[in-house]
Amino acid sequence: MVPTNYYVILSAVLFGLGVFAFVFKRNIITIFMSIELMLNAVNLAFVAFSQALGKLDGQVFVLFVIVVAAAEAAVGLGIIILIARNRQTLNVERVDLLKL
Amino acid sequence: MPTYPMLEYLWIVPLLPLLGAAVNGPFGAKWPNKFVNIVAIGSTGLSFLGTLEAVREFFESGQRLFHKEFFTWIAAGNFRAGFDLQMDQLTVVMVLVVTGVGWLIHIYATGYMAHEGGYYRFFSYLNLFMFFMLILVLAANYVLLFVGWEGVGLSSYLLIGFYFLRKSAADAGKKAFIVNRIGDFGFMLGMFLLFRAFHTLDFQAIFTSSTLQGWPVEVSGHLGTLTFACLLIFMGACGKSAQLPLYVWLPDAMEGPTPVSALIHAATMVTAGVYVVARSHVLFMHAPTAMLVVAIVGCATAFFAATIGLVQTDIKKVLAYSTVSQLGYMFLACGVGAFSAGIFHLMTHAFFKALLFLAAGSVIHAMGGEQDMSRMGGLGRKIPSTYVTMLLATFAVAGIPFWAGFFSKDAILFATFQSRPGGTVLYVFGLLTALLTSFYMFRLIFLTFGGKPRFDEHKVHVHESPWSMLGPLVVLAVLSTVGGWVALPALFQGPDYFVNFLGPVFGGHETAEAAGDIAAHHLELILAGVAVGAALIGMVVAYWLYLKRPGKADGLAHSLKPAYTTLLNKYYMDELYAAVVVRPLLWISTNALWKAADVAGIDGAVNGIADGARAIGDGVRHAQSGNTRSYAVWVVVGAIVIIAVIFFWPSGGKPVLGMVH
After folding, report:
1. Shortest CA gap B650–chain A (Å)
2. How many helices, marked H, and strands, marked E, lie in chain B?
3. Looking at per-residue confidence, does B396 or B627 come out higher?
4. Fewest CB within a 10 Å sphere: which of B98, B127, B161, B182?
5. Chain B partners of A90 at a C-beta cutoff of 8 Å?
6. CB–CB of A22 and B636 under 8 A?
7. In this structure, what DSSP letter does residue B254 have?
């Protein structure tokens, strides 16, 4: 039986990687993937605690997160494709029309 | 089918003119005058017929007071104000005068206004006025009466300012409205005081309440609740009926078309104050101090306005001051307890003053708009019908025997003479006023119709008015002549029918005259003789000054220059008000309210907040770089800060945000 600590540490590492990539990468696809990574890191923590505490609540949460992540992927990828078509680039530095 | 259909549906009487106004106002603009006439005259005529039928039913039913609640208008706690109408003898007099004279003036106006712009607008306003005036006289409580009271004020404002392109007319309308507001303020306070004392504002509920029955008569000089309430109500009456010191709006109101002057500013609306005092006579009888104030103010106004009337040269201004003066007579009568005499004079005055104004309108019409009597003269032969009818009205107002004004004025002077305290002084001034009245009225007649023309006869085409104008003149001339004859038997020791008629309303509050006292009767005859003598003196002096020796009047004016200029400038009352009220008010408004409070205070605060918000926004807008990754950094930083706060807040071991122990 793997101790809960290991799962939590792995989850924190994955989340930290996700945040790092989210902030520092320029490619929209990569940023998008880092968001997925953060979501799944949280999912891992949920499942770990669920197993450790013997309660199902955490697993129910995970199902919700997966559903929302799927919906978000559908919408987000659609937006990314539109940006790529309109601007001929995937670099977020170039997508700054909201700037005053 | 009810036994008395018109009484049961009394609301139809005021509703008809309202319908006329509602039809003519929006739709009349595109119609030919003939349609507007049919609606306006038809609605008031039907209203008059309805009134006649209601009055007939009222007498047939033989009840002392008809009172009907149609619907509840305001219900708040134990306060109820309903759309309740009532009819008693006092209402009968008022409502017949309003609808009858009003209808005649409507007919006259179709001729007078035929060539004016805004024809439909004029009749719409006039019908609206009729509606409110009928509400005023039919109302069965003070609140509904106040609705009519304010409504006639509104109509008056609209009609004075009918020629609103002329600045003087627009100003006169505003002046009338604002001065009336001052009086209405007192009227409302009086109503509040009455409600506090009696917990109701229904006429009958107050007048017959046990509170009032057990209320001791407040001795002179003692300012009790009723005295205060009566004085406040009288303040409203002063505004509406143009008494000192609130009379200043009425002469200016002559800027309105002449039929308006006749209907609103002579026959009906301005008598509303007298009506209210007479309606509240039960209260006033409990407050002798208030009665004395009413009598003094009435008498002073009567004399004061008559002196100004002596020197005015504008034909309508003379009549306006005459109206103020005659209204003073009515208040004098009410103040000395002769309410019947006051209402009698109100009725006769409605006839002859409406006639005087309409005839003056006919003269102005004939002269093509000229109102200055110094540029008239010799019109008697050119417009004989107008001349004869106006002469009859002048006989009536001057108190020449057997014309209407003689009887009513005689009744007032007699009651004044008998009243205590101060009856003799009031009587002397009343008598002097009668003399002055006779003088300035015959001066008007001689200047207008007598002597030689003082205008260019080639330029001014003098012509008699059409029959739509002369018809009402003739009817009113007949009424001015015979209108007082109901009191004729009283001269020969018979019953005074008018006093007896109003007896059920005013009860036992009448003077010895009604009691048939022989000594009092002889006294009355003597006083009547004195009054007639005064009237004849005024007439002869006017004849001598303005017909016999035309240059003499100017010489007299020259030798009495200070007095003459004072009168010509109306005792500088307008200038006094301008200096005491208007200019300080303007100064405070300009400097304190406008420049200090509004510009510096309110605008400063609003603009300051706006400027501050803009400065802050200007500062923080740079955070919005438009770069997606910078936003991502802010999100991460925000999350770290929140987590740090949750973990490291120095809470002394207490739970933070209810999450972590």
Report:
1. 25
2. 31, 2
3. B396
4. B182
5. none
6. yes
7. G
Strands B79-87 and B66-76: antiparallel
Answer yes or no: is A100 within a domain. no
The model's pLDDT over B209-244, given as tens digits with 9 standing for 90+, comes to 887 777 777 776 677 888 889 999 999 999 999 998
The per-residue pLDDT for range B157-187, each reduced to its tens digit, is 999 999 989 999 999 999 999 999 999 999 9
Instruction: Using pLDDT thresholds of 50, 70 and 90, give the confidence band for residue B509.
Output: very low
Reading the block at residue B139, the tokens are 């109302």
Per-residue pLDDT tens digits for A60-89: 999 999 999 999 999 999 999 998 998 888
The predicted pLDDT at position B660 comes to 45
Q: In terms of CA atoms, which chain A residue is nearest residue B629? A: A23
Closest chain B C-alpha to A97 CA, distance in angstroms: 7
Interface with chain A: mutation pick from B620, B622, B628, B634, highest number of A CBs within 10 Å: B628
Residue B487 pLDDT greater than 90, yes or no: no
Radius of gyration of chain B (CA): 31
Whether pLDDT at A47 is above 60: yes
Instruction: Read off the pLDDT of each residue in B7-31 and give the average, rounded to a whole number.
Output: 90
Distance CA B368, CA B460 (A): 7
A85–B contact, CB cutoff 8 A: no
Closest CA to B243 of B114, B145, B332: B332
Closest in A19, A93, A99 to B636, CB measured: A19
Select from B624, B628, B632 the Cβ nearest to the Cβ of A95: B628
User: Does ipTM come in above 0.85?
Assistant: no
- Domain with residue A75: its CATH number is 1.10.287.3510
So where are chain B's domains? 1-160, 161-559, 560-596, 625-661
B372 forms beta bridges with B314
Cis preceding-peptide flag for B14 (omega within 30 of 0): no
Residues spanned by the domain of A40: 4-92
For residue B20, give Cα distances in angstroms to A73, B24, B35, B38, B130.
Answer: 72, 6, 11, 9, 10
- Give contacts of B625 with chain A, Cβ < 8 Å: 96, 99
- Asked if residue A44 belongs to a domain, the reply is yes
Q: Output the six-digit token pair for A58.
A: 């955490």
Distance between CA atoms of B154 and B17, rounded to whole angstroms?
A: 16
Whether the pLDDT of residue B207 is over 70: the answer is: yes
**Residues of chain B found within 8 Å of residue A22, distances taken between Cβ atoms:** 632, 636
pTM above threshold 0.90: no
**Mean pLDDT value of segment B308-321:** 90
Q: How much of chain B, in percent, has pLDDT values that exceed 70?
A: 96
Number of domains in chain A: 1
A 37-76 near B (Cβ less than 8 A): none
Q: Which uninterrupted H or E stretch holds A10?
A: helix A4-24
Query: What is the predicted pLDDT for the residue at B307?
Result: 92
Cβ–Cβ contact A7 with B under 8 A: no
Contact A26 B629 (CB under 8 A): yes
The answer to whether residue B475 scores a pLDDT higher than 80 is yes
Extract the tokens encoding B173.
């309308």
Q: Give buried/exposed letters for B26-37 (b at 16+ CB in 10 A, else e).
A: eebeebeeeebb
- In our burial notation (b when 16+ CB lie closer than 10 A, e otherwise), range B133-171 reads bbbbbbbbbbbbbbbbbbbbbebbbbbbbbbeeeeebbe
Q: What is the pLDDT of residue B653?
A: 54
Q: Which of A22, A95, A100 sits opposite B624 (nearest CB)?
A: A100
Assess if residue A54 is contained within a domain: yes
Chain B residues with CB under 8 Å of a chain A CB are 621, 624-629, 632-633, 636
Work out how many CB contacts closer than 8 A connect A with B: 31
